[in-house]
Amino acid sequence: MTYETILAEHRGRVLLITLNRPEVLNALNATMAGEIVEALVAAEIDDAIGCIVITGSDKAFAAGADIKEMQPKGFAEVYVADQFGLWDRVPMLRKPVIAAVSGYALGGGCELAMMCDFILCSDTARFGQPEVKLGIMPGMGGTQRLTRLVGQAKAMEMNLTGRMMTAEEAERAGLVSRVVPSAELLDEALKVAETIAGMSLPSTMSIRDATRRSQEISLAEGVRYERRLLQALFGTDDKAEGMIAFIEKRKPVFKHR
Ligand code: CO8
User: Best of 19, 21, 24 to mutate for ligand 1, by most ligand atoms within 8 A of CB?
Assistant: First the structure.
């Protein structure tokens, strides 16, 4: 499939989505939003894909929503079109998605990264929610996901001032899982994604589902939900294969990959 604003390539069992508007630091316009969602939905029903990586360029993962596209719009227009509402589909998808971030991840770019299941970043990454400087506010989870990930103090400071966080601070705060040297970021993200894609999909999808749900329900409900999913996995061929392979001291060959 060919797109105008992104590249989508199969790398083994991984779909690599590269945001590709380098001349505007991958600013997210309506076409790009539609194409990212379309590529993710296609991956969801593609048996050859077990994990997705979303990345940008060395200079920018994405510098936010496209300001030039937003500038002429007024309330009625964005309300009727439910501007940015399409992005709600991303966290509802079920296959694991990794954000590999180098350079700027600002505004909608930071929010897109936070919609992914986890963020690997390079030492050049800069995260921020600068919407306040434009007289607006985050609209794709910046006040919600960022607060859950890094806590109210940091989220509030970042959202109210628009200051950027370095990669080191982002790792310390729990926004990213790991920081790697810039030149190694993509290889590392693809390696991690290939590892995940080699596992049983019912297992990775259930882990993702339960982990995400932990942000929305009580601890007791979450633990009960987790246990039900675990018990359900005892019904899969891959559970049988995984356990017998361990006992026979060989690598498992999962059927549902
Ligand atoms: N939108 C449109 N164009 C952009 C954007 C953007 N967000 N960011 C950069 N560009 C363009 C610049 O206009 C410039 O274009 P040109 O060469 O034609 O002048 C080109 O990219 C290169 O940018 P700079 O010359 O500014 O590069 P610098 O290295 O000097 O600065 C910065 C890099 C600091 C990242 C700077 O470009 C910047 O501050 N960008 C804007 C960041 C921002 O405010 N982002 C938030 C946008 S609002 C938002 O995301 C709302 C979210 C609501 C929901 C989101 C749904 C997707």
Answer: 24
Mean per-residue pLDDT, 47-65: 97
Residue 248, helix vs strand vs coil = coil
How many other C-beta atoms can be found within 10 angstroms of the C-beta atom of residue 238? 19
Residue 253's pLDDT is: 95
Q: Where are the alpha helices (DSSP H) in 23-82?
A: 30-44, 67-70, 75-80
What is the per-residue pLDDT for 257? Answer: 81
Distance CA 213, CA 63 (A): 29
Phi, psi of 91 (to 5 degrees): -70, -10
pTM for this entry: 0.97
Sheet holding 60-62, edge to edge: 60-62, 104-106, 126-128, 165-166
Q: Ligand 1: residues whose CB is within 6 Å?
A: 24-25, 27-28, 63-68, 84, 87, 104, 106-108, 111, 130-131, 134, 138-140
- The C-alpha atoms of residue 164 and residue 130 are separated, in whole angstroms, by 8
pLDDT band at 86 (very low <50, low <70, confident <90, very high): very high
Could you give the CA distance from residue 200 to residue 96 in angstroms, rounded to a whole number? 12
Q: What is the spatial distance between Cα 104 and Cα 111, in angstroms, rounded to a whole number? A: 12
d(CA 91, CA 97): 9
Tokens of 160: 């109210």
Matching residue, tokens 């079920």: 94
Q: Is the sign of the CA dihedral 248, 251, 253, 257 positive or negative? A: positive
pLDDT digits (tens, 9 = 90+) for 201-219: 999 999 999 999 999 999 9
Q: How far is the CA of 43 from the centre of ligand 1 (A)?
A: 29
